[in-house]
Amino acid sequence: MLRGVRDIEAKESAFTEARDKLTQDNLALSNDERQNASLKLASDQRELEYLANSFQEDRNNRIQIETNKILVDMINAINKFGRDNGYDLIINEGRLSQNTLLNGGTLYKGASVDITNDIAKVLEKNFQDSKSGG
Fold this sequence. Notes:
Elements: H1 2-25, H2 31-84, E1 89-91, E2 106-109, H3 116-131
Antiparallel strand pairs: 1-2
Helix pairs in contact: 1-2
């Protein structure tokens, strides 16, 4: 990553020098020379912006990947702690909810907390009752 920063800084320095030189030599240049130099500067500026944006995007992606690794490790540790210590439920208070891995609120739930099958039975009974006119 340091190499990328140095590359961008070197290109930025070269761009600044070329821009300053064009400003200094502006009156001595012919119209064609001035136009060509301006077009080259515009192209160099676009390239520099592209490199800076690519670098920033890559940096953000790396940060997100590392953050997700840490969060997965945290969730695994929380699950192990919950199982090992007999907890039924561990809930996120919302301090970490900015990350999608922790948005659900529940960090750990034991089998005794899972009521999915019970709810499915109630729904099935309600459906059967509605079919029979009850």
